[in-house]
Amino acid sequence: METHLSAGEATKVVIDFRKVTCFSSTVINTLTLLLNQLSACDGTMAVCSLSLLGREVLTTPLLDTVLKQFPSPPETVAYVRQ
After folding, report:
1. What is the DSSP letter of 54?
2. Domain residues of the chain, as ranges?
3. Helix (H, G, I), strand (E, B), or coil: what is residue 13?
4. 46 forms bridges with which residues in the sheet?
């Protein structure tokens, strides 16, 4: 995915956290990196299916203020397609 982002080929990203049960600083760092790369090329990223823990983890570094969150994949895909 990084190759496509660096080349400007990917400008819309959806991440489904449905099966993610553990969050670490690696997740936060990766999301921040993706957000920065996408904003450099006017891209859009959104996440869905976050657990309560996931939502709390994203609140701490204030990622919840810049990262759109949706309850399910269809709503997330519709958002990034706008």
Report:
1. H
2. 2-81
3. strand
4. 14, 68
Percent of residues, the chain, with pLDDT higher than 70: 90
Q: Which CATH number fits domain 2-81: 1.10.10.10, 1.25.40.10, 2.170.120.30, 3.30.750.24?
A: 3.30.750.24
Q: Are 48 and 72 in contact (CB under 8 A)?
A: yes
- Write out 17-42 in H/E/C secondary structure: CCCCCCCCHHHHHHHHHHHHHHHHCC
* List of residues 6+ apart from 56 with CB closer than 8 A: none
> CA nearest 68: which of 44, 51, 42, 33?
44
Give the tokens for residue 8: 């400007």
Entry pTM: 0.82
pLDDT in tens, 35-67: 988 888 888 999 999 999 888 888 888 888 889
